[in-house]
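Input chain follows. Return structure tokens only.
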Amino acid sequence: MNKVILMGRLTKDPEVRYTQTSNTLVASFSLAVNRRFARQGEERQADFINCVAWNKTGEFVSKYFKKGQQVGVVGRLQTRTWDDDKGQKHYITEVVVEETYFADSKRDGSAGDFNSSFGGDSAMPASNDSEFEVSSGDDLPF
């Protein structure tokens, strides 16, 4: 099973590009995810995780996600390689985002304002490429 769940802050606004062959939208962004523990007397460390969102999820990310905003993402881990112009091999590991969530509280800024304007709360999914929808009235087993 390959499933990743992250919550962190965007390090900059998402970058949008389109594939050459099919003109498909892809949004790339990086999340600063705090580590769970900090050593005594040291500042808490963060990991910077590269993420990519395709199609409608990418469109949503590019439209509503901004630098500094706290978000949650669910996806899968992917590694890939390519050779540059000089023949040097490059490796990258990234999260392919399948679901996005606003994680800022309603008091904290634009994401909360967006959610409250549309009747949601910060735990509601912002975007989800799956075919299943969960309304706020559904009983969940957890």
